[in-house]
Amino acid sequence: MSEKIIECNNLTHKYGDYLVYEDLNFTVERGRIFGLLGKNGMGKTTTINIMMGFLRPTSGSINIFGEESHNLSPQTRTRIGLLHEGHLTYDFMTVEKAEKFFSRFYPKWEKKFYYDLMDKMGMNYDHKISNMSCGQRSQVVLGLIMAQDPELMILDDYSMGLDAGYRRLFIDYLKHFVLQRNTTVLITSHIIQDLEKLIDDAIIMGYQEILLQMNIQKFIKSFHQYRFNLQETSLELHKDDHIANFETLDNEYCIYSFKDEEEIVNYINQKGVDINKEDISEVSMTLEDAFIGLTGKY
Amino acid sequence: MYRSLFDKEWLKVRWVFLAYIILTISVLVYIASDLRHTFEMKGAIKNWLAITIHHEMYFSSLRYLPMLGGFALAIFQFVPESFDNRFRLSFHLPINEIKLLLYMVILGLGAIIIVDLITIGGFIAVSSSFFPAEIVSASYQTMIPWFMAGLVTYLGIATAVVEPNWYLRIVLGLITYFTASLYTQGTIYMQYNHVLATYAIPILLLTITIIFPGHRLRKGAK
Amino acid sequence: MNLKKLSRYAIILVLIISASVFLPRFYHKIVDKSTRSPIIYYSPVIENFAYFQHTGGHTAFKDGEGNNYSRKGYEKLLPFLYYRDLDKWGVLPDTIQGVPTDITSIRHNSQRIRLRAYNLDQPTIDLYPLFESQSDYTNLSYPPELFRINKRIEFVTAHTNKINEKMSRQFTKDLKEKGFEFPAQLIAGNPTTRKPFDEGYFIVDNEGNVFHLKKVQDSPQCVKTPIDNNLNIRKIVISESVRREIYGFMITESDDVYLISYDNYKLIKLPLKNYNPDKMDFSFYADPVYRTIKYDDNYNYHAVVFDSNYTFIDSMKISLTPEEEKLSTKVKQALFPFEIKTMKSFSSLLHFDLKFQSWLSLIGILISLGIGIFVKIKRKENIKENWFDFVLIIGAGIYGLLGVIFIKPDIWD
After folding, report:
1. Is C127 within 8 Å of B192 when comparing Cβ atoms?
2. Residue C130 scores a pLDDT above 90
3. Nearest neighbour of A54 by CB, restricted to B7, B80, B220
4. Which chains have 3+ CB pairs within 8 A of A?
5. Whole-angstrom Cα distance, residue C404 to residue C408?
6. A84-133, pLDDT tens digit by residue?
7. Please, which pLDDT band fits residue A234 given cuts at 50, 70 and 90?
């Protein structure tokens, strides 16, 4: 069994009386690339804030390298690279000054990673960060995290404000780097589709709970979308162990499920609706489709 | 590590630090030219007597300057960190956050004390050419509480800026305002001399006040 | 206690300090009423005291027996004071007690010298102008230099900001010849041109001897006075008057007051009861017949009257309601357990005096404590972790309460 880098134990958080979630549990193991996915308002940012140590949970804890996340020792912090929402960095520094600043804090600092990236972008070293575009800044921040060579990267919404080109650039570099260094990554993004090629596992957060924690390939393979029409009869559907989610529009039905086609046919038949395998068509899904299928559109 | 933090603080405050020095020098130049003018118009002895008998303060334009400087330095040093949650960057650095905050405060205090020394030095140079030692020394002694007001303002405003909650920030701002105003009440020369040590107590207390809002910010208090 | 807790208490302490300066000040701004200080004189007409007192809206004019007067009637009691009004009304008598009362002679035979308590601790910049005492001109004018006394007497010329060596040597030599021991303990003069003539300076040397220094025709004129050098003189006030009866007066460390007469510096000791120069304003007033000494601490107003030979005639004391007995003071004591006073009416200096109120403060402390407990329970604060908050409320009453309520404790770890 591989080493647990992040352990989330019975995590509960409330803002005043408003409960975000209760008794959340998950673990991230070494060398895995984790996507923390969830629609807005499901507590993704709260979890990230707790994980980064900027919020104390109401109860429970997230342990990183065995230490409570909001009480990490300075030594442990050197092992963690953070990308803050909005590619937060010291805007008032130049490319070179930012590198110099952070280099003194990290014993394993490799400025090559940083300057390679800057050179690729043709970035002038005395360019001030506050004068950069979002895309350029994201590369600076990524370069800084790579140069730190951390064992764990926590990347909060790396895609914010980036166009398709920069998103691709970011993911490509990141993937290349983490595979080479066996870095553990926990990443969130608004744009699910980009993550398909990057992440190994996904944690999908729903309302006050974790909907799913699973290997991403396994998820795409085992999660199905079935569509069928019913002309005369109507079918009452509820979420249960067969039906992860469903949509109906007049007499068109759409079911999301981890079960195979035959089990779904049996399930519907048991409900007293006569349906054959031929009546049902399975629609192939991207990660984004699957994500929306699981969490719902609303 | 500390070298990096020093560079960072310097990057943030260098222009305001320079502006503060330039402003100080400008005020000193103004005081010198004003003295030259009144000496010429009213005669030297009248000016001397206005000071020795009526305690007229020819340097009163310096009264609120340290407070202004302390305020500006606190704003320029801490607002870029508070803005956009940028303190998160510092708090993730492998350094104890209390040490980090205190180090920032020490650098700010250092900057203020440098300007204070420039002010006193420049002031002594200017007034020595117009006045005998008794007036010069009475004058800079009179200014000491004003410098203390600058320290109070810097420390108090820094604490208020770091505080994440707006309501508490205003309370801290008010505390700072009232405390600083204790040091600028003087109307005659050397009025604080015998109580300077006691007046240093709030300043000593204020050197550690930044830790509490820092802790609150770090732990996500609202 | 960890640094984070300590930091919070530092904030609260700063709050307590500034609140204990400003809240009582604010309270006074709201409740203070005028103190109605009486102004007392001695009437040569009725040979008794006469005084007036503003009492909310109108002014009461009275004599020492308690009789009431109109304003005109009152002014008629004091012709040496209100001679201009009396003259206007045509009722100024020709003589009073055998003394002619024409305006010029009244004016020439009146003198007033004041010493306020705050003059005693006023910081000084020790540079003094020495006037020409026998000038060819009637009006006094400022000399071009100021003098200081350290190991010698030095004159610094203002427009060059340099020492006038010739003059410094000349005066030092003269002082030494008269037996002056440098440095000086006290230098007293009346550095104004608004006086009829100049009497120079009274200087106490290192051995306690009093010297009288003047500049006459640009040369020093120094007299070693016969004043006892064991008097421990604290303050000398000089005030030139054409009466030429006294140079002024002096106060010793034992709070005795002596007039310094022109008659070979003979001292006249004034028998004043309960005079405390540190807390009382003092005035000397001479009219053609009497000498009146007044001193007050804003609550007790004393007046002592002497004849021209300083033989005691009468004395009077009017006491106002003491601050402690006023309702507003009692409310203040209940409200505020202590107060930090930075300014005092009888001092020029700024202070930082912690003044505890009285047992009445217990009321405020108990109420504060009650509110504190209520708020903390309502907020579900960890009372065990923050027990020191209650120590602050007990110690600092309402200030402590404001502190611990505004600056809420956080979760510590």
Report:
1. no
2. yes
3. B220
4. B
5. 6
6. 988 999 999 999 999 999 999 999 999 999 999 999 889 999 999 999 99
7. confident
Report chain B residues whose CB lies below 8 A from the CB of A105: 1, 4, 93-95
Given pLDDT bands bounded at 50, 70 and 90, which one contains residue B115? very high
φ/ψ (deg, to 5) at C87: -65, -40
Q: What is the mean pLDDT of residues C358-385?
A: 93
Torsion of CA A175, A176, A179, A181, to 10 degrees: -120
Q: What are the structural domain ranges in chain A?
A: 4-218, 223-295
The stretch A217-227 carries a mean pLDDT of 89
How far is Cα A257 from Cα A235, in angstroms, rounded to an integer?
Answer: 16
Tell me if B92 and A92 make a contact (CB, 8 A cut-off): no
With respect to residue C389, please indicate whether it lies within any of the assigned structural domains.
yes
Residues C197 and C213 in one domain: yes
Interface of A with B in 52-71 (CB under 8 A): 52-56, 70
pLDDT in tens, A42-68: 888 889 899 988 888 999 999 999 999
Residues C384 and C242 in one domain: no
Structure tokens at C202: 């009274």
- For residue C28, what are the contacts with CB-CB under 8 A and spacing of at least 6? none
Q: Which of B1, B8, B96 sits opposite A90 (nearest CB)?
A: B8
pLDDT of residue C1: 59
CA end-to-end span of chain B: 30
pLDDT at residue A1 tops 70: no
Same domain? For C209 and C181 the reply is yes
What pLDDT does residue C188 have?
Answer: 97
How far apart, in whole angstroms, are the C-alpha atoms of residue C295 and residue C302? Answer: 5
Which range marks the domain in which residue C331 is found? Answer: 3-33+327-406
Q: Using a CB–CB cutoff of 8 Å, tell me whether A88 touches chain B.
A: yes
Task: Tell which phi-psi region holds residue A252, choosing left (phi > 0), alpha (psi between -120 and 50) or beta.
Answer: beta
Give the nearest chain C residue to B173 (CA atoms).
C15
Phi, psi of B144 (to 5 degrees): -55, -45
Domain count for chain C: 3
For chain B, percent of residues with pLDDT exceeding 90: 95
Report phi then psi at A170, rounded to 5.
-60, -50
Domain edge (last residue) among C107, C133, C151: C107
Residues C135 and C261 reside in one and the same domain: yes
For residues C269 and C233, membership in a common domain is answered with yes
**Is residue C315 situated within a structural domain?**
no
Residue-level pLDDT at C413? 67
Most confident of A178-182, C135-139, C235-239: C235-239
Q: Using CB atoms, which chains have 3+ pairs under 8 A with B?
A: A, C
Residues C278 and C334 in one domain: no
Cβ within 8 Å, pair C7-B193: no
pLDDT band at A214 (very low <50, low <70, confident <90, very high): confident
Which of the four CATH numbers 3.40.50.300, 3.90.700.10, 1.10.8.60, 3.40.630.10 does domain A4-218 have?
A: 3.40.50.300
Question: Residue A283: pLDDT above 90?
Answer: no
Residue B199 pLDDT exceeds 90? yes
Mean pLDDT, chain A, integer = 88
> Both C223 and C148 in a single domain?
yes
C134 plus C280 within the same structural domain: yes
User: Cα separation of B101 and C312, whole Å?
Assistant: 72
Residue C203 lies in a domain: yes
Show which of residues 5-34 on chain B sit within 8 Å of chain C, judged by CB atoms. Answer: none
What's the ipTM? Answer: 0.96
Q: How many residues does chain A have?
A: 298
Contact status of B129 with chain C (Cβ, < 8 Å): yes
In angstroms, the separation between the Cα of residue B127 and the nearest Cα of chain C is 11
For tokens 């020819």, the residue is B58
Q: What confidence score (pLDDT) does residue A34 get?
A: 92
Let me know if residue C310 belongs to a domain: no
- Among residues C153, C218, C147, C154, the alpha carbon closest in space to that of C180 is found at C153
